[in-house]
Fold these 2 entries.
Entry 1:
Amino acid sequence: MTKIAVCGAAGRMGQRIIVAAREAGCTVSGALERPGHEMVGQDAGLIAGCGALGIAISDDLNAVVEGCDVLIDFTTPKVSLKNLEVCALKKKSIVIGSTGFTPEERALAVELARDIPAVLAPNMSVGVNVCFKILKDVAKTLGDDFDVEIVELHHNKKKDAPSGTAVRMGEVVAEALGRDYNKVATYHREGICGERTKEEIGMQTVRGGDIVGEHTVYFIGMGERIEISHRAMTRDMFSRGSVRAAQWVVGKQPGLYDMQDVLGLK
Ligand SMILES: NC(=O)C1=CN([C@@H]2O[C@H](COP(=O)(O)OP(=O)(O)OC[C@H]3O[C@@H](n4cnc5c(N)ncnc54)[C@H](O)[C@@H]3O)[C@@H](O)[C@H]2O)C=CC1
Ligand SMILES: O=C(O)C1=N[C@H](C(=O)O)C[C@H](O)C1
């Protein structure tokens, strides 16, 4: 039985991951929250709504990592990088779902995962990862004749924009078209901003209410349009995906993997 510890245990995702780990037959060996969080000391299972587990939410990163096979972390990039560093020191595996990494932070994650197996993925759902695969083919097939625009919608508590999933969709499309995402991504249009260039990939963000997560990539041509959309109705496929990744990653060769590796989609 894989021993899973959860970081961000009282968060929207952390709570669902505790439930998913139990449903998958894994042992929840530890639960972490930030020092000073009001839930520290409380039973992780009671907070997650799956009944008492006898595991108190802790703020002791070293002790929690020590007791697990794999840490699942859905927090923020800075916290995730610190957790990756501690997992590397203690030779434990890690699954990171946090989003909002800068290119420099992602490069640091690759570096820190040199000696342990780690998964870092902006979206743990099967559906979105199949979309990544489809998008590559569609972009390659359509080529430069279709304008690409990406729109994402999320709840009003989300801290990063655009979503990690939207950025990855942009990167997949840009790469398939031989463009550099960081040069062609266009986040803002206002005033007399001029005609659209052929290369740009528009990135639009909508925030409101309790939207779990919706992504649409538009390929817009002359007289026709293709839309590839994914809508998440609950967080459960993210949490189940992260547990699947945790079970997969333990015992793998060191290195930084993504969900495409876990799902065999490469
Ligand atoms: N990869 C995926 O499939 C998905 C990724 N996400 C990403 O996961 C992250 C978290 O999302 P939510 O759960 O909605 O946020 P949230 O804000 O509900 O939960 C984050 C939790 O992390 C805790 N935290 C902050 N600093 C900490 C520290 N130093 N140690 C331990 N815990 C700490 C917070 O107190 C909070 O409880 C975001 O970056 C989000 O974009 C969300 C859903 C799916
Ligand atoms: O913050 C969220 O909620 C989500 N974040 C991820 C992202 O940024 O892509 C994945 C999902 O859409 C939910």
Entry 2:
Amino acid sequence: MNLLSLFLPLIRRQWLMMLTGLTLAIVTLLAGIGLLSLSGWFLSATAVAGLSVATAQTFNFFTPAGGVRFLSIARTASRYGERLATHEATFRLLTELRVRVWKALMPLDEARLAGERRGELLNRLVADIDTLDHFYLRLMVPMGAFIALLLALFAFIGWFDMGLALTLCGALLLCLLIIPAGFYLLGRQSAAAVVNGKRRYRLLTLEYLGGLAELAMFKGLKGERALLDSAESEWQTAQRAMASLLGLSQAVIILAHGAIVLLMLYLAAQGVGERVPPGPLAAMVLFAALATMELLQPLASAFSQLSGCAAAAGRVKSLLDEKSAICFGERDERLSGEVGFKNVSFSYDAANGSGNPVLNAFNLTVAAGTKVAILGKTGAGKSSLFALLCRSYEPQHGSISIGGVPITELNERALRATLTVVTQRVHLFAGPLRDNLALACEQKVADATLIEVLEQVGLGYLASGDEGLGQWIGEGGRQLSGGEQRRIGIARALLRDTPIMLLDEPTEGLDSQTEQLMLARLFEHAKGKTLLMISHRLTAMAEMDCIHILEGGQLVASGKHTELLAAHPEYRSLKSRN
Ligand SMILES: Nc1ncnc2c1ncn2[C@@H]1O[C@H](COP(=O)(O)OP(=O)(O)OP(=O)(O)O)[C@@H](O)[C@H]1O
């Protein structure tokens, strides 16, 4: 069911190329069977004609020889075309499927994605979709061609002898009904085990490689390696079982085909239609029966893979059916920088009922154009405030607004165009420095602007090498230090011009001189904008219009730096710890 519901919409769009592939597959098989039957008849008829001088002189050698040549050229040409068309159709189907999965994946909210291992998503996007190429190429095309050829064969042999046609096509039909069903049932477990084994091995390999440094440091390599080896050997066992089954299927098909050929030889030798003895027509029927091997061969392997395909389809379909819990609205307008949290309650795992509230009837209003800091102990829920404002998560109660408009009414474009966020963890893509910076801008941005911003954050030297902005930033920015990565995050923020800036401990891990410099740049850039900064240090607090202290999911104190220093011991203790 999953397979069909996944493929039906695709078939509707790619039907022409798929039909072309199927038609060419039918033409190839027709030409193959025609070639063998005609050759069989031609050789026997030539031998019979040679028995007397009179028949040898009157026998027309040229037309059948031309037919053989035509059919062999037609077979080669249509086989070439078939391969092109079926593979083109497969690639189109897989491309569409992959794009569909990607589009379904993109809008999923963080709460939904947090439950998935990254390797699992990659697996669905790559390995599972690859497995689905069996469906058209190895299942639909051979089955369609088989049925079309069965009808053609029935008409052709039936023209000479209805009994022989019924026997040959009946036996082939029986093979079609029994062999695929049998091998589907036999291969059900192994095919699913191969797909699952591959999936598990991929997941573990990705985790192993990702955690290699930690595993080496904490002597965990051996245990993890053993886990990987056992997953590999399970996968190999499943593959071995599948290969044995495929071998068995080929043997069964050869046996069934041999029996059909013998039966046809026996029956055709008794006479073909009115002709007794049958003469060269017996060879024609026999060779036609021999040629049906090409029809039978793909049957068993196609069906033994079916359960693997169905398992992959189930996983891909479940991803396509996922819906984000976050629904964006329709409003698309340029907003002022006022931010409001009204009676907001939020817990990360409210869905399973056991959630500890991170925010509890939380209220906060930040006037447009002001600089506000939110301080609190680690785990107090400061970053969660930003996550809610960016709509990575949805609060269970209350409402959040920007410029007086509830954020649930805004479309995604409007929301993103209003916010600039410097997150705690800056993600760098394995790509050129230029691309890693330019992704902050919606419009194309000049290299000179990027270099200027890099200089502002003290990273001008990165672009001064031979490769300039084309310098490759390794996977996750491995070629850069932690502090350099953070400053690239700040550079991205400086490239944006939005009414609100959200800074989540933007200078964590930087030395105090660089920290002062970065904050000065950010505050300069934030002039006239609303700036919300999360911190657990008191650095730059004197420059804030208001500072709030978050504790137990609520604000426990608010005021200016000097007021809080005087009135709030917790605030003073923050300072003394730093
Ligand atoms: N994605 C998540 N899923 C489940 N719980 C989370 C998630 N992110 C944070 N939490 C939990 O929510 C609480 C608040 O986390 P949050 O990151 O908002 O705190 P914070 O004040 O920013 O802390 P820090 O100063 O250490 O960054 C913590 O108890 C944390 O364990």
